[in-house]
Amino acid sequence: MSAVLQQQATHPITRNQDFDVRAFDAPLGAEIVGIDLSVPLSDSDFARVHRAHLDYHVVVFRDQRITPQQHVQFSARFGPLQRHVLKQFALAGHPEILIVSNVVEDGKPIGLGDAGKYWHSDLSYKELPSLGSLLHAQELPSEGGDTLFANQHLAYDELPAHLRTAIEGRSAEHSYLAKYAELQKNAPWRPKLTEAQIAEVQAVVHPIVRTHPETGKKALFVSEHFTTRVVGLPEDESQALLNELFALSSRDELVYRHQWADHDLVFWDNRSVTHLAAGCPDHLRRKLFRTTIEGDRPF
Questions:
Q1: Dihedral pair phi/psi, residue 69, rounded to 5°
Q2: Can 122 be counted among the known catalytic residues?
Q3: Which residues, listed in sequence order, are joined to residue 219 by a DSSP beta bridge?
Q4: CB neighbours (10 Å) of residue 227?
Q5: CA–CA separation, 148 and 52 (whole Å)
Q6: Hey, which bits of 208-296 come out as E strands?
Q7: Among 57, 212, 271, 275, which one carries the catalytic annotation?
Q8: pLDDT tens track for 239-277
Q9: Which residue among 214, 257, 270, 281 sits deepest, i.e. has the most Cβ atoms within 10 Å of its Cβ?
Q10: Distance between CA atoms of 183 and 52, rounded to whole angstroms?
Q11: Residue 297 catalytic?
Q12: Where are the alpha helices (DSSP H) in 100-223?
């Protein structure tokens, strides 16, 4: 192979693509139309996508006929990828991809079937929570299956004065185990965690209000799924405060509801939003692939 061909194989030639970023009529979110993620993006196109993600917090790439490897490669341009603690639901040959699915084969679930049942920010229970997640539709139900996203910058901006005072300078604990037993009760297929898995998800403490490391904007950083208590408050006061924050942070006025279309790839900012899976009838098959990008320690 010639030196030129060798260089092209290692560093494929990229060309700018003619795509549009179209904001939704919603408190957050935009779609990116006319882009093909099956080919590597030029630096300038990648910068446009990155900017759109920061500006709109959720971006939807339509009709992406990409392979799992291309999904991983695009995700990894934003940072190191994290692996979910339930490694038994990783895609074979692609440990960075979590299968989100209610499909059962040979009597066993192939993926995490009840993912997103409560409002949450992915991996907030880690010392380095997720920067963002990318979810790619593989098989969609004929009804249901929507995903809701709530803008946590707006949630913070619109907090009543008494709540701003109550949370100023405070931190809260996040735990993967917070609702695990409850989920197991409703879904017995959920695996019993091994000691090694439990050690991997020890509870952590993060600020209730975090500053976005790239934009400097403040956002609420609590969720009903993983946030267990406010540090330094009696249990009853802590729970009352959290309940107020949970209710205010998921109000309809803050939410974009995504109705999935075939081959959608949705990329959301876990530093800016929380999300919820609306669910679908059990007998309708749903399968999506998710990557998760490691973020920074919240401050």
A1: -65, -40
A2: yes
A3: 210
A4: 25
A5: 19
A6: 209-211, 218-220, 227-230, 255-258, 265-269, 273-277, 287-294
A7: 275
A8: 999 999 999 999 999 999 999 999 999 999 999 999 999
A9: 270
A10: 35
A11: no
A12: 152-157, 161-167, 180-186, 195-200
CA dist 112 and 98 (Å) reads: 8
What's the DSSP call for residue 120?
A: B
Both structure tokens of 145: 């299956």
In the set 57, 71, 120, 229, the catalytic residue is 120
pLDDT digits (tens, 9 = 90+) for 7-64: 444 455 678 999 999 999 999 999 999 999 999 999 999 999 999 999 999 999 999 9
**Residue 261 CB partners (closer than 8 Å, separation 6+):** 62, 63, 137, 140
Give the C-alpha separation, 289 to 134, whole Å: 8
Determine contact, residues 173/228, Cβ cutoff 8 Å.
yes
Active site residue 120: yes
Separation of alpha carbons 157 and 282, rounded Å: 38
In this structure, are residues 273 and 129 in contact, taking their beta carbons and an 8 Å threshold?
A: no
Closest-CA residue to 28 (of 60, 64, 74): 60
In three-state secondary structure terms, 100 is strand
End-to-end CA distance of the chain: 50
Cβ atoms of 234 and 259 within 8 Å: the answer is: no
232-238: Cβ within 8 A, 24+ apart: 232/170, 233/170
State the Cα–Cα distance between residues 179 and 291, nearest whole angstrom: 22
Backbone φ, ψ for residue 153 (5° rounding): -70, -45
Alpha carbon distance 166, 153 (integer Å): 18
Tokens read off for 146: 């929507």
